[in-house]
Amino acid sequence: MEKKVKVFGAALDASDFPLSIQMKRGYLNRLAQNLVEVSDFLDPYEAFLIFSRLLIKEKFLKIGKFPVNSWLTPKPDLKDLYRIDQSSFERFTSEGNLKTTSERIEEFIKDNIIPDIPLMIGVDHSLTGGVLKALSDEFGSENLIILIFDAHFDGLPANISVNIAKYASEHPDELNPLLLEESYSLSEEVNLKDNYTCASFLNYLIEDNIIRPENLIIFGCQDYPDETFRNKIDPRIKEYIDFYDKIEKKGVKFIPKTVNSQMLKMLNQTLQNVSNSNFYVSIDIDVGALKEIIATRFRNAIGLEQSTILDAATIINNNIKARNNKLIGLDVMEIETHLLNMDFPKSGRKDQTIEVVDNFLEIFFKNEL
Q1: pLDDT for residue 324 is more than 90
Q2: Among 172, 155, 164, residue whose Cα is nearest residue 244
Q3: H/E/C letters for each residue in 97-162?
Q4: Are 309 and 173 in contact (CB under 8 A)?
Q5: In sequence order, which residues have a C-beta less than 8 Å from that of residue 288 and are 6 or more positions away?
Q6: When comparing pLDDT for 367 and 103, which is higher?
Q7: What is the total count of domains within the chain?
Q8: Lowest-pLDDT range of 214-218, 234-238, 324-328
Q9: What is the pairing mode between strands 349-350 and 343-344?
Q10: Residue closest to 330 by CA, chosen among 368, 295, 279
Q11: Handedness of CA 202, 207, 213, 215 (dihedral sign)
């Protein structure tokens, strides 16, 4: 029996970045003045249901939204205004609630989707961990290949992330994409409890044997330490490089952003020996940030062009079809709801996130539509 692709929304958006909070409060101020259209979408899932040319196909069964409290969504209820501040979101994260929510996603997948194919459209990338836990339990970690399109490696412990951000803030003349554009005001007193977050969840999955490092491929990352970075002597840089080297020795395969042809060649070579396995494809849309894609939460580095992303998807799909593999799940994460489909008159540009994602997904399902 042919499997359905069950599409659902997961609009957890607990970011404590100042710009994110500013956009939410601005939305609520407009809502209070009746300046928001009733027809406006509240999250990425709703936007895709309205504007996607692909998800209207019968292949895709829309099953609704994973429940998230209003104040933790991109466009909260007006009654939540008092909670939309940095301390509330910091407390939510520090208390371990991202991991708890990811565990709820795991149960949601088991109860509502398996044995069909999940397609999650959402915000916080840490929720991918819950989907992967459900699929790992179903198929076995040894039979699960994970391909993640991402400008960052979401497996860094918090202390390393903070230290590298401090270094970047102290060296503004050094061009690198390591410091998030909506950064904390970093001082020597800044500490961050090591928690399961969108920046660290992959390390948790590896440490807990939910996924196998040798089965994890990161495509398009821009925080991979290059030779210039490796020549620096700061102990925070060494700590960062040592961690990256350790995780790479465990088997994680990084395909950093470089010349397009080299990236695609590396991807194809990496997939050559994969057979009789199950593929999960996750796209953090910051992999294409500030090209066709503007509606991404992290816009601190210029990402890949749509053509490169689609060429990579084609290589993955060809390897799945040619080697008796199966596609068992996908997700599209880190979407900034407030920028979706927006026009930017000064630059003459328009966000094309939904079109890019449609084109991406079509590569995997074009023969079934």
Answers
A1: no
A2: 155
A3: HHHHHHHHHHHHHHHHCCCCEEEEEECCHHHHHHHHHHHHHHHCHHHEEEEEECCCCCCCCHHHHH
A4: no
A5: 296, 303, 304, 305, 306, 309, 356
A6: 103
A7: 1
A8: 234-238
A9: antiparallel
A10: 279
A11: negative
Is the Cβ–Cβ distance between 48 and 121 less than 8 Å? yes
CA distances from 94 to 106, 194, 220 (A): 21, 8, 29
pLDDT in tens, 66-97: 999 999 999 999 999 999 999 999 999 999 99
Rounded to whole angstroms, the Cα distance separating 44 from 163 reads: 32
What is the arithmetic mean of pLDDT over 6-21? 95
- Mean pLDDT throughout 117-144? 98
Distance of CA 122 to the CA centre of its chain: 9
CA-atom Rg of the chain in angstroms = 20
Tokens standing for residue 217: 């491929």
Give the Cα separation of 95 and 305 in Å (integer). 38
Strand partners, 119: 7, 330
- For the segment 245-262, what is each residue's pLDDT rounded down to a tens digit? 999 999 999 999 999 999
Least confident span in 94-98, 107-111, 173-177, 301-305: 173-177
CATH value at residue 69: 3.40.800.10
